[in-house]
Amino acid sequence: MTPALPSQSPAPRRRGRPPRTEGAPDAPAARDRILTAARNEFAERGYDKTSIRGIAKAAGVDPALVHHYFGTKDQIFGAAVELIFAPTLAAPDAVHGGSREGAGERMARFMFGVWENPVTRLPLLAVMRSALTNEAAAAVLRGMIERRLLLRMVVELHVSNPEFRAQLAASHMIGIAMLRYVIRMEPMASAPVEDIVAMVGPTLQRYLTED
Amino acid sequence: MTPALPSQSPAPRRRGRPPRTEGAPDAPAARDRILTAARNEFAERGYDKTSIRGIAKAAGVDPALVHHYFGTKDQIFGAAVELIFAPTLAAPDAVHGGSREGAGERMARFMFGVWENPVTRLPLLAVMRSALTNEAAAAVLRGMIERRLLLRMVVELHVSNPEFRAQLAASHMIGIAMLRYVIRMEPMASAPVEDIVAMVGPTLQRYLTED
């Protein structure tokens, strides 16, 4: 929707919608554009090299608007991380959405479903890099995983020390991601997903279900 | 040994030792000092922020001497990485130096022996960070691990796909290190090493020995 130009009469008021002032971006669209820009900036440049100003520029808005919707750099990083992790947040549903015997394999397959696709993988790796090189970013990531992922994973794990076991399982997949996609060490980098799932599935199964 | 001062007569020649010119550092000591400085610089600043000039300054030598002994930045990074990984390079001996049944547990305990000590852990994490954020650093690390670690680990693994299995085992430990020491997520961050070894030992055992 284009804002009214100076030479035209003001756009007619639409019922239920506040009048639009010239130049004021449509609020929900602006917020989305800022969040998308934030995700892209953090994914491309990492936490350290991303700024509110850079995000604002990429979104085509004033930096004050970024502050208005999201607050501090850490707060917008948190929002971007939640967006980047959105596909991963479905992991508990995958793990718990089937027979108990298949939980480990489902977890492994689910993670590869996210990582084998560069569109979902690259921003995730960028977030991991940021967490590795910046304490504030690590704290944001930690908080997000605890609130949005870990709780939902463990609530249906009927084993002792479920948080510990969920983290053992997650750590295994994270380590595989590092060798396969980041350090790119062979043969892990090129191994068929099926081969990895065949080895790792039983491991995750034991962690998640066997007391 | 202090170099001769201008007002003194030159130091007497010592049999078997080349004459020392004023200001010329004792060669082996200088090389060691440079390597130690390189390790510290890379460990503190990471790959990107470390330079030949910075290393030379920390070692108290001319940058030309750094080039003389080590070559390019990647070559001195490689030498520093080998120094930083020296404790880890004993892993194959630990794994293979005992009964087959204890291999997995020995590997897990050995890794914790290196990581639980901040003196050995911190430079390792710095190298991992560098590899994560810099492609050249990742290539150096990859080459060093392949040449110095992987080969010796697999030569005594009598299973199918020994390199793949060794990397599965290593990836598990790397992922645990990331959760425990870098992202510092609880309960993994504070779990007793014994608890982790109890869960992970059997996993590594299966990867390393069971076909």
Short description:
Two copies of one chain form a homodimer. The first copy, chain A, is mostly helical and 211 residues long.
Structure write-up:
Chains A, B: One of its GO terms (molecular function) is transcription cis-regulatory region binding. The structure is a homodimer of 211-residue chains. Chain A has helices at 27-45, 52-59, 63-70, 73-85, 91-96, 103-115, 118-133, 135-154, 162-182, 193-209. Chain A has 211 residues and is mainly alpha-helical. The first copy, chain A, has two domains: 27-80, Arc Repressor Mutant, subunit A, CATH 1.10.10; 91-209, Orthogonal Bundle (Tetracycline Repressor, domain 2). The first copy, chain A, starts with 26 loop residues before the first helix and ends with a helix. The model of chain A is unreliable at 1-8 and 17-22 (pLDDT under 50). The interface between A and B is large, with 42 and 42 residues.
Can you tag this structure with a few keywords?
homodimer; 211 residues; mainly alpha; Tetracycline Repressor, domain 2; 2 domains; 67% helix; globular; DNA-binding transcription factor activity (chains A, B); TetR_C_16 (chains A, B); TetR family transcriptional regulator (chains A, B); transcription cis-regulatory region binding (chains A, B); HTH_TetR (chains A, B)
SSE layout:
The structure is a homodimer of 211-residue chains.
Chain A: H1 27-45, H2 52-59, H3 63-70, H4 73-85, H5 91-96, H6 103-115, H7 118-133, H8 135-154, H9 162-182, H10 193-209
Helix pairs in contact in A: 1-2, 1-4, 1-7, 2-3, 4-8, 6-10, 7-8, 8-9, 9-10
Count of strand segments of chain A: 0
| Average pLDDT level of chain A | 88
Give me the CATH fold name of the largest domain in chain A: Tetracycline Repressor, domain 2
> Oligomer, anyone?
homodimer
How does CATH name the architecture of the largest domain in chain A? Answer: Orthogonal Bundle
Structural class by secondary-structure content of chain A: mainly alpha
CATH class of the largest domain in chain A: Mainly Alpha
C-alpha end-to-end distance of chain A: 58 Å
Q: Strand-and-helix sequence of chain A, N→C?
A: HHHHHHHHHH
Full CATH superfamily name of the largest domain in chain A:
Tetracycline Repressor, domain 2
Largest sheet of chain A: none
Radius of gyration from the alpha-carbon trace of chain A, in angstroms: 21 Å
Number of domains of chain A: 2
Determine the most extensive contact between two protein chains. A-B, 42 and 42 residues
Shape of chain A: globular
Number of helices of chain A: 10
Fraction of residues in helix of chain A: 55-70%
Give the uncertain stretches of chain A in residue-range form. 1-8, 17-22
